[in-house]
Model the fold of this input.
Amino acid sequence: MSSAQDISLSIERVEKLIQKHVLSSDLAVVKLAEAKNHGFRCQTAGFKIYVIDLHGGDKDSTKTTTASCFLTISKPDSTESSGANSPNTLAVIHTLLALIRDKTSIPISDSILDTSHDIIPFDFLLSPPTPFSSSDIITLREAKAQGLLDAKHQALIDLQIGQLLAQLHTNVQNDWYGRPALKGEEPSEPSYSWQETFTLLFDTLLSRVKEKGYDLPQYSDIQTHMSRAIAFSVFDDVEVPSLVWFTGSDADIYLSLPTSPSTKTPGIVAILPSMPYTLWGDPLLETFFLQLESCKAVLEGYTGSGGGPLVSFPRQKTKRVWYTLFLALTVLDGYLSSSSDAQEIPEDKKKWAEETIAECTEILKTAPCY
Done:
């Protein structure tokens, strides 16, 4: 099976990509690093994101880095390039990024899609250089772990995340539910029911994890609980298909470093173009709503910027449990897709997924459906 580890880049090849697509031909690559903190987007088969540092002039000079950009690469011949739960292609992601830029103020750059394979044997997305180096930015997850944010700054950033999600869900909408498609390539039989769409995605995912040989002791219980949820139409309250990032997390959001001399207040300066599982669906599916009781600032920013109510009835809390279970299965499936051996799943990811599946299955035994 193809593996994300099969994808590798050299600085020399990346410089050729920069020379091809960036007008400033004197920009040299001084650092090439994989964005390895995958968060919930997992390590999907044939998919990697790199952070590139650039500066003008000879690479051996003493000049400081003047710019940075993101490079996303993907194998076009992935063995799982089609199907209900397959990751979005870079061409689809490029289309979605354009929609988001057109309809929101979310800080996503106008990336270049290249499928020519004339320099590297991969499809890739290249974001335009921005005037700061990778040493001037940090992921929100790392900033939290290092204690760089006080309570006030954390709340301000959470408010901003809620505002951005509200823009995404209210301004970028669709006529049908499910995996996005390229313009002009809509499904032959589009789904206009979120319950039908989600249950198909969920059942397909559950079966795939089992077929890949993963020991899932809760398999039968999950099927039983899903039958009950369907009978009570738990998922049938979504009226408009919104664009849902789904696996987006604090590992995909970059802040200006609070310790940088030019930074007075840390804020969101970049978002990784990481949308392998983005789909048209229910806003409550967002991973940022994973723990509703602990994301009050996010919810405040969300509702204050036009986002609709997420939980008004007990069954919607039950629905959120299903979405958490779906996320855990997605993480497992992503790693199983990038390796033929379940033992190669990172221990922390495996532990989180297994514990989450067990907890959610137990909660769903008595979760309300009204």
